[in-house]
């Protein structure tokens, strides 16, 4: 929300539809937009909304959804409610608000009740929320009524599903944690408390806490495995627990604790207030802030579920990804001992978006996943027409090496099924043994400038002062970004005069892979491979979570990104995307200071205020400054020519920057997947995937990497006067032959 403002899209005249999962969707409406801030007043806003549709201001009913919760509508009726709307959606660019009138309301309304939080230490009871909204189901009869206390029904359904968590003797569980979790749910569903007589890693004995009750259960670990099996379980409670199934389950602190943990599993970065609101909206239960806070603090110390549980969930999760999103690719590879080795995921919406709207430009990067097991995340990311990050595919591998990168690229090539040349921006080390061109024919590998400069810093740390090294790096950047050979040579000569050794290092690093003037691919002005960090940086900030939950979270993030971008672009009215429109406007301003004195057919000479002359060919989309060719839209010199000819600038911009291409990029949606939908594995289940090796932490200090040094006098090498490369002269220069 920029500068305290929030764009509000008011929608009216449509109907709500209730889906099977209880979420609401709105369609068939007319929409208007305005903006609000902390100074906005409800009465003024209500008057503005009434004017939009010619409604009576006193009859208006205004509602909205909380973030990531499309099941309950919140009413705005005063200034305080309006401030709450701003607080809840403060991190959003826009928010949908639904407008109706009293005349449109019928007896078939969604009614639930809402009360304040209890501040005393007593069993928590379901509360209710009262809001009004016209709901219509997808049935023959419109506007079917929704039962009251919908949230209480959701709670009852949840607890009812735990009735058979424990079925009796010889029931198997993956580990002790799974057994304890099942026992906890079983006790909530059947309304009894229990205590552990023995609670060890090898066997567990629990008994009913009621005085005089003889109900007990015993489970033990199978030798040489982590599997737990029930060895003894009483059939009934002598205290009477479990005999009558209450329609309204007792909402104990134990149940609230479980609900808090479930919320943490789905939203590990949520704060206490967000969790409290989520439980309130889903189940009508008000959890105490202190209780939620304690659970959050506990989660920082230990993961909510065992880390190895997630690996065996991967096959089921991948099956769900493919079934819910036809056309997606989810590949899992294990070693001979069933330990995890590699996985690859490319969602159909991402593949479609890249092939139909993105430039043939991919950024490859890797980052470490927080885990006690060896696991690294590999990503292939593109850019949309608005210079936004567009995730194409990702992989998790047990170790980053050439073989695993090669496997990732083979999977990526198969998933994309394209034959046009692709430009990759990646670390130079990625292609030393197995070049990218082995897999993607006619592709180009642009070296990541960030990684190159980090390598230069390491090798020359101590050989140059920090100030001198910074000057060298500045000229290094200038050489990379130079659009003409003269500009490149000038920057390289500056470096040579400062440090011949640094100049040699730079020229031997493959300038044909990182300099604009020598690179044969199309990078559109991008030099760093870590563009995906803004999308995947949260991976390194997460607490340690199971691998299956991590994959689910990544898919969810991509789903949210696709939905948000699709919604935002529906409001655009320009020919080009906003980012490119802005850049083109800057070029138009600069073009006003240029002169176009000479023309020869489609070729024009353009003069700037310093007397420099640039040659523009509008048929070839070419300018001697090379910015038009490098970036895909007219430079200021081309703009000056096109404006003088009265031509439309849009006709000379790459199709990738049009709003139409952007909408094609995000045209397909992603259906959700969830590890919560994967059933607890029973006796017949088998271990399909085991965790990989533990991450090795050496007790010995790492040896310092050997710095770039010379023994004896520095030997002067041959330098090419054309490209300034080392080890050859102008007669043998392969770059200009």
TrEMBL record:
It comes from the Eukaryota. GO terms for molecular function: zinc ion binding. The keyword Zinc-finger applies. This is MUSTANG 7. Pfam families: DBD_Tnp_Mut (PF03108), MULE (PF10551), PB1 (PF00564), SWIM (PF04434). The lineage of its organism: Eukaryota, Viridiplantae, Streptophyta, Embryophyta, Tracheophyta. SMART domains: PB1 (SM00666), ZnF_PMZ (SM00575). It comes from Hibiscus trionum. SUPFAM superfamilies: CAD & PB1 domains. Keywords: Metal-binding, Zinc, Zinc-finger. Residues 614-646 form the SWIM-type domain.
């Amino acid at each position: 929300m920029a500068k305290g403002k929030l764009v509000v899209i008011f929608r009216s005249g449509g109907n709500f539809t209730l889906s099977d999962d209880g979420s609401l969707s709105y369609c068939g409406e007319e929409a208007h937009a305005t903006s609000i801030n902390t100074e906005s007043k409800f009465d003024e806003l209500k008057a503005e909304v009434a004017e939009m549709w010619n409604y009576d201001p006193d009859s208006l009913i205004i509602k909205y959804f909380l973030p990531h919760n499309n099941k309950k509508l919140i009413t705005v009726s005063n200034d305080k409610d309006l401030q709450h709307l701003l607080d809840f959606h403060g991190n959003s660019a826009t928010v949908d608000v639904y407008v109706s009138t009293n005349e449109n309301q019928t007896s078939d309304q969604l009614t639930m009740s809402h009360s304040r939080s209890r501040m005393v230490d007593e069993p928590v009871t379901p509360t209710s929320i009262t809001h009004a909204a016209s709901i219509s189901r997808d049935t023959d009869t419109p506007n079917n009524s929704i039962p009251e206390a919908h949230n209480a029904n959701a709670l009852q359904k949840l607890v009812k599903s735990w009735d058979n968590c424990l079925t009796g003797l010889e029931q198997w569980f993956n580990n002790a944690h799974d057994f304890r979790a099942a026992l906890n749910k079983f006790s909530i569903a059947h309304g009894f408390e229990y205590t552990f007589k023995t609670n060890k890693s090898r066997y567990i004995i629990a008994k009913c806490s009621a005085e005089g009750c003889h109900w007990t259960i015993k489970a033990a670990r199978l030798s040489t495995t982590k599997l737990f099996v029930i060895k003894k379980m009483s059939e009934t409670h002598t205290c009477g627990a479990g005999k009558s199934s209450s329609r309204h389950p007792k909402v104990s602190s134990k149940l609230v604790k479980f609900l808090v943990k479930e919320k943490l599993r789905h939203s590990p970065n949520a704060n206490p207030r967000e969790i409290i609101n989520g439980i309130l909206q889903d189940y009508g239960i008000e959890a105490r802030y202190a209780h939620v806070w304690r659970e959050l603090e506990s989660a920082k110390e230990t993961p909510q579920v065992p880390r190895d549980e997630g690996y065996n969930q991967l096959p089921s999760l991948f099956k769900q990804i493919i079934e819910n999103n036809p056309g997606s690719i989810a590949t899992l590879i294990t070693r001979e001992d069933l330990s995890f080795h590699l996985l690859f995921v490319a969602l159909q919406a991402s593949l479609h978006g890249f092939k139909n709207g993105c430039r043939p430009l991919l950024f490859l990067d890797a980052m470490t996943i927080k885990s006690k097991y060896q696991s690294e995340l590999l990503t292939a990311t593109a850019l949309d027409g608005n210079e936004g990050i567009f995730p194409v595919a990702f992989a998790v591998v047990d170790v980053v090496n050439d073989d695993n990168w090669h496997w990732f690229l083979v999977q990526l090539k198969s998933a994309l099924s394209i034959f046009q040349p692709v430009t990759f921006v990646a670390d130079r080390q990625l292609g030393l043994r197995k070049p990218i061109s082995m897999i993607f024919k006619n592709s180009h590998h642009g070296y990541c400038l960030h990684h190159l400069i980090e390598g230069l810093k390491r090798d020359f740390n101590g050989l140059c002062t920090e100030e001198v090294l910074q000057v060298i790096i500045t000229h290094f950047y200038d050489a990379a970004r130079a659009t003409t050979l003269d500009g490149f040579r000038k920057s390289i000569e500056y470096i040579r005069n400062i440090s011949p050794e640094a100049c040699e290092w730079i020229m031997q690093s493959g300038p044909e892979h990182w300099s604009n003037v020598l690179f044969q691919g199309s990078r559109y002005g991008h030099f760093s491979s870590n563009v995906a960090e803004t999308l995947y940086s949260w991976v390194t900030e997460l607490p340690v979570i199971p691998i299956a939950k991590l994959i689910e979270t990544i898919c969810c993030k991509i789903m949210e990104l696709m939905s948000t971008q699709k919604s935002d672009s529906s409001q655009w009215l320009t020919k080009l995307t906003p980012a490119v429109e802005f850049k083109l406007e800057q070029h138009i301003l600069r073009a006003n200071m240029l002169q176009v004195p000479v023309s020869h057919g489609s070729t024009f000479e353009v003069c700037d205020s310093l007397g420099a002359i640039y040659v523009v060919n509008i048929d070839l989309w070419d300018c001697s400054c090379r910015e038009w060719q490098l970036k895909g839209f007219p430079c200021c010199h081309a703009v000056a020519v096109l404006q003088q000819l009265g031509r439309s600038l849009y006709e000379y911009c790459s199709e990738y920057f049009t709003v139409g291409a952007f909408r094609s990029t995000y045209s397909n949606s992603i259906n959700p997947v969830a590890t919560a939908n994967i059933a607890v594995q029973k006796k017949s289940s088998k271990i399909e995937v085991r965790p990989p090796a533990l991450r090795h932490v050496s007790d010995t200090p790492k040896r310092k990497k050997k710095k770039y040094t010379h023994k004896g006098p520095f030997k002067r090498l041959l330098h090419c006067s054309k490209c300034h490369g080392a080890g050859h002269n102008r007669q043998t220069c392969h770059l200009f032959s």
